[in-house]
């Protein structure tokens, strides 16, 4: 492998990690670089000196991640892609609320990445009492310096998770992220980053960048709907979503192993949408396990209506993959083929 550049790039996008008290409560703060450098002085010298070199960049408008959109995911991926050969790895500091969405989208956009992209955040601001911010930044830097890591990952509370498998799972505990259907990729042990053997992406999903930097904004404000079924759901509600011309695809969150009501109006609305080239995919409302649509007679209708199985993907991964595929000038059957094909270890 050719010589890697010496430094990492840390990109601060906002989130609690860098928030400061404002007039209406916590809000994203500026001058993050200065505050981080100061906080790092509190680490024991041996730990501080063993950190990799890094440079810091702030996005033009640090945000609470509840305000992030697919356009922000796109901007971030383009930023990493444009700097990709100048740094040996990347750390992205992000609000935790939609961190898993951004990490999932980055994985699809930065396909084949040959170095670490580590996304982290914090549950409490840097410098606040018992903050997790400095530990998470330190851990993320250590993982981002590992050449063996060649994918988008989430580092939180000492664990490294596949980005496209991660979910925020707790509202306030420091150990807030899990990857329900995928074991961790690594762990911090005694302040050292340990990557577990054979958990990284297989070739050819890594090691040879073939970025797909699509224009998500061109799809319109909300091209994909997320529809969570509930007992007694009225089919016309689902039909209303799917008949909207601005909707090009939908995630259906169904029951158990892939079950949905055998309702001809509901299934008819789904079949009409897929017939129009809309991309529909289903996952389970159960947080663990995969789905097999068609195993039950009641679920068979989903497959007949052209709904694709999202297997054991997270909602964040399905939504960002649907947006990613819809943004590409592909024929409908190719989009469907790619949806069911694992591109970056998402299923
Ligand atoms: N509201 C914050 C955000 O997502 C939450 C956090 O970062 N812990 O930006």
From TrEMBL:
Residues 8-193 form the L-asparaginase N-terminal domain. CDD domains: L-asparaginase_I. InterPro entries: Asp/glu_Ase-like_sf, Asparaginase/glutaminase-like, Asparaginase/glutaminase_AS2, Asparaginase_C, L-asparaginase_C, L-asparaginase_I, L-asparaginase_N, L-asparaginase_N_sf. Transmembrane segments: none annotated. SMART domains: Asparaginase (SM00870). Pfam families: Asparaginase, Asparaginase_C. Residues 224-339 form the Asparaginase/glutaminase C-terminal domain. The active site is at 96. This is Asparaginase. It comes from Litchfieldella rifensis.
């Amino acid at each position: 492998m050719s010589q890697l550049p010496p430094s990492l790039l840390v990109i601060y996008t906002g989130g609690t990690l860098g928030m400061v008290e404002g007039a209406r409560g916590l809000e994203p703060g500026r001058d993050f670089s200065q505050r981080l450098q100061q906080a790092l002085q509190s680490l024991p010298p041996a730990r501080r000196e063993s950190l990799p070199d890094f440079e810091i960049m702030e996005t033009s408008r640090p945000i609470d991640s509840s305000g992030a959109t697919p356009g922000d995911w796109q901007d971030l991926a383009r930023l990493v892609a444009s700097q990709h050969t100048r740094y040996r790895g990347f750390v992205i500091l992000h609000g935790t609320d939609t961190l898993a969405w951004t990490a999932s989208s980055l994985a699809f956009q930065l396909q084949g990445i040959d170095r670490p992209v580590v996304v982290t955040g914090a549950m409490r601001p840097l410098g606040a009492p018992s903050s997790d911010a400095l530990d998470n930044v330190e851990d993320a830097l250590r993982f981002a310096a590992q050449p063996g890591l060649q994918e988008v990952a989430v580092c939180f509370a000492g664990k490294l998770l596949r980005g496209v498998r991660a979910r925020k799972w707790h509202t306030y505990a420091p150990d807030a992220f899990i990857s329900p259907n995928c074991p961790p990729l690594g762990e911090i042990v005694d302040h050292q980053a340990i990557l577990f053997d054979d958990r990284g992406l297989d070739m050819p999903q890594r090691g040879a960048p073939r970025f797909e930097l699509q224009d998500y904004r061109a799809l319109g404000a909300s091209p994909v709907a997320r529809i969570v079924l509930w007992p007694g759901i009225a089919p016309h509600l689902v039909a209303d979503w799917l008949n909207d011309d601005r909707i090009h695809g939908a995630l259906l969150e169904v029951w158990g192993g892939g079950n949905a009501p055998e309702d001809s109006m509901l299934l008819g609305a789904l079949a009409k949408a897929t017939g129009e080239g809309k991309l529909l995919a289903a996952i389970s409302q159960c947080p663990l396990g995969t789905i097999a649509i068609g195993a039950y007679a009641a679920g068979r209708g989903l497959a007949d209506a052209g709904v694709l199985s999202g297997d054991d993907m997270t909602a964040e991964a399905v939504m960002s993959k649907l947006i990613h595929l819809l943004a590409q000038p592909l024929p409908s059957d190719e989009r469907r083929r790619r949806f069911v094909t694992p591109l970056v270890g998402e299923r």
